[in-house]
Amino acid sequence: MVEPLLSVEDLYLHYRTGRGVARAVDGVSFGIARNEALVVLGESGCGKSSLAKALLRVLPRNVEHFGGQVLLGGRDVMRLDNEAFRRDVQWTRVALVMQAAMNALNPVVRVGEQVAEPLRTHLGWSKQVATKRAREAFDLVGVSGDFLERYPFELSGGMRQRVVLAMALVTEPDLVIMDEPTSALDVLTQASIMNRLKRIKRELDTSFILITHDVATSSELADRVALMYAGQIVELADARSFFSDPAHPYSQMLMASVPRLHQRERPEHIPGEPPSLADPPAGCRFADRCPSRFDKCRQAPGMYEPNEGQQVRCWLHAAGGRS
């Protein structure tokens, strides 16, 4: 059996807040293979961005609990201290494309210097060699080398997003985590960036975790899909199965809410709202919004495997179902 690139077991990230402890990432487990794209879907506030922060250890000061097992190439990186993690993992093995590209770039530093910075900081490259590699990274994401000397405010939103992607790819990491990389961009720019990502995945053998709430855009890149709800993964399946035949009631309602070309029926809406992460229900966290709920949903379900390669957090798919 081929060892996965990344294996996550029981990952937790809880925050202290004025309303109590928010369970943003609450026992999340998944794996990702080399040259695979995993899309993490879910509504705003479900814990998707916190999952990215936990994997890259970009943590705020109000962390209440952070723990679990994260194996990267078979090595448990959770055991590394912060300095070793920064040196051996951040940017060199795992890189992040942050949400809102303008906020991720320094407005008073030329973009070429910012893309070259990970090479100089983490790998100790000279400025000349790092700049040459930055030019190659620009070419990879479809940006002319002439843009190396420009400032972020001189670039369009789509170009800034490509620059941030080049910054993540410049060290040739094994895994790139992208947090809403196409939000606030027009449809044509979104399509162009997704096509560029598919080419990079194919040519560089890079793995991706794409965090998004955009079902339509994510389907272009996904090999597998993890659907999050209230801090937990409720369905994990290959993309073809998820988009054509979702198993969890939340997955089914989410897909029914997505408008499609040539669709006669009107898109449906999901009634209610997600529970507070500071006070989640004791049982199934989706039960209050679920049309299929029954008595057993008062207890927290585990992850069940109704089909090979498909995991669902729902009592309907446990042995015996409703019985």
Outline:
Helices cover 29% and strands 24% of the residues. It has 323 residues and is of the alpha/beta class.
What do these coordinates show?
This protein is of the alpha/beta class and 323 residues long. It has helices at residues 48-56, 82-88, 101-104, 111-122, 127-140, 157-169, 187-204, 215-218, 239-244, 249-256; strands at residues 6-17, 20-32, 37-41, 63-72, 75-76, 94-97, 175-179, 207-211, 224-229, 232-238, 304-307, 310-312. The strands form two sheets. The chain has an eight-stranded mixed β-sheet with strand order 6-7-8-3-9-10-12-11, sandwiched between helices. A four-stranded antiparallel β-sheet has the order 2-1-4-5. A hairpin with a 2-residue loop joins strand 9 and strand 10. Helix 4 (111-122) packs across helix 5 (127-140), helix 4 (111-122) packs parallel to helix 6 (157-169) and helix 5 crosses helix 6 (157-169). The protein is globular. The model has no long low-confidence stretch (mean pLDDT 91).
Query: How many helix segments?
Result: 10
Give the DSSP E fraction (strand runs of 2 or more residues). 15-25%
Question: Separation of termini?
Answer: 36 Å
What is the oligomeric state here? single chain
Let me know the number of strands: 12
What is Rg? 20 Å
Shape: globular
By secondary-structure content and strand pairing, the structural class works out as alpha/beta
Query: Unreliable segments (pLDDT under 50, ≥5 consecutive)?
Result: none
Adjacency order of strands in the biggest sheet: 6-7-8-3-9-10-12-11
- The ordered H/E elements are EEEHEEHEHHHHEHEHEEHHEE
Mean pLDDT: 91
Helical percentage: 25-40%
Main sheet, how many strands, which sense, barrel? 8 strands, mixed
